[in-house]
Amino acid sequence: MLKILKYSFYDLMRSRWSYVYFLFYLLLGVVLLFLNNDLSKAVITLMNVIIILVPLIGTIFGVMYYYNSREFTELLLAQPVKRSSIFLGQYFGVATSLSMSLVIGLGLPFIFYGIFNSNAIWDFSLLLVTGAFLTFIFTALAFVIALCNENRIKGFGYAILLWLFMAVIYDGLFLMSLLYFEDYPLDKFSLLATMLNPVDLSRVLILLKLDISALLGYTGAVFQKFFGTDFGLVLSSAMLVIWVAVPTFFIWRIAKRKDF
Amino acid sequence: MIEVKDLYKKFGKNEVLQGIDLSIKDGGIFSILGPNGSGKTTLIKCILGMVLPDGGVISINGESLKNNFKYRNEIDYLPQIANFPGNLKVSELIAMIKDLRAAKTTKDEELIEMFKLQPFLNKKLANLSGGTKQKVNLVLAFMFDSPLVILDEPTNGLDPISHLRLKNLINSEKEKGKTILITSHILSFVEEVSDEIVFLLEGKIYFKGSISELKTKTGQPDFEHAIASILSDSYA
Predict the structure, then answer these.
(1) Residue B190 belongs to a domain with what CATH number?
(2) Range of the domain at B88
């Protein structure tokens, strides 16, 4: 698997899109830091961008990579390599290179800005870690979608729908249900609903770390009480790991039974 | 020795293979023929483990293929469509496949020389023409000295001189005692190289034997007419 990972990674590292993605983050980081000069604000703005953009790029890139390398995958399938290694290798290759674009692209301007001498280093690391997690989660989901759909247009469609649902519609439904059931105690429900969507989970994790949970009002207090504790942090990290592990398991399982 | 027993495969409602029984002995060139959609590529892909059969057993040298991937070390395969990751250079692709197979001895240099690929070694695969890609494909397929070689439409896109070189290459591989499976629609090519043909029709084996046997069976003077008579009989 490591060999496949290595080659997928090299292949992507050379593609123009990795650089575009990398340069985008580099530019974003530079603009936010050096024109704004406020580290906390920069981190919040970055968070808003990352939460929406990382899942989108992860899904699109994952689906695109899978469909584009189909013939090559067939070549690999005829080699004495285990099936699961091929697909898991490609998946980790894509996800790793995307995460690297993110981490290095944002990391460089922050290092030059002097993040190491600042208190914001932990907020910033959390931002990068959740960004990497989101990349891995959505790339895995994209691979599952692509493996299930021979038709590229359909695959792309489902991938976009998935992103739209997770990043936009889910929040809308969540809010509507909060309004609709406002007469009932909703603490547990909202905690659970947040845990079940990796996008929301990442957002809440970062917001709470930034100590602006007061802005969130009562919900913020509930969340702070839960996610602010060690138990909450462990549980939410575990949730992110599960969000990576489950789709990865499905990649393995579907790939094992698929005809090429 | 390839042993195929009672092989079934369907894609959705389309029953592609309907009980194939086939045994291919070691050494010689076998051509798998049949009209479009008769299941040639599916059969080959079943042997390679890329398509998982719905029923039946395939074994190579007595070893069942199920949940086994190491046997592919003994197979060289030329896929029908040559399409590689565009960002890689030709030399890198060759190095990569070598690395994946962990093969000790390869004859890639000899093959590169044979197909005159030196000027393309440092070019990216995305910038190669279809025929050149097919040549790279051939290098990849022949560079390991595996006892079983499977070629799916090997002549696709080749110019006449490369075509000739390919024929010589196939014959010299046969001299070494290898088993070579070919699918092709170019009957003159098949007639020239193959020792035995297997004719697939609607997912079943319609005929297996030498070309002269086929001519006697159909009562036709030449190979092309013999094939045509099978097809017109079956479509009538």
Answers:
(1) 3.40.50.300
(2) 2-235
CA B99 to chain centre: 23
A104-148 confidence digits (pLDDT tens) = 998 888 888 877 777 777 778 888 999 999 999 999 999 999 999
- How many angstroms separate the CA atoms of A205 and A227, rounded? 7
Give the 3-state DSSP-derived string for A207-234, with helices as H, strands as E and coil as C: HHHCCCHHHHHHHHHHHHHHHCCHHHHH
Distance CA A240, CA A137 (A): 8
Residues A187-227: pLDDT tens digits? Answer: 788 888 888 899 988 888 887 777 665 566 666 677 777 77
Number of A to B CB contacts under 8 A, please give it. 61
Per the structure, how many domains does chain B have? Answer: 1
Q: How far is CA B51 from the centre of its chain?
A: 15
The kind and range of the H/E element at A193 are helix A187-195
d(CA B226, CA B219): 7
Q: Which residues of B touch A (CB under 8 A)?
A: 11, 45, 48-52, 69-73, 75, 77, 79, 81-85, 87-88, 96-97, 99-101, 140
- B107 alpha carbon, distance to own chain's centre: 19
Residue A57 and residue A21: Cα distance in Å, rounded? 9
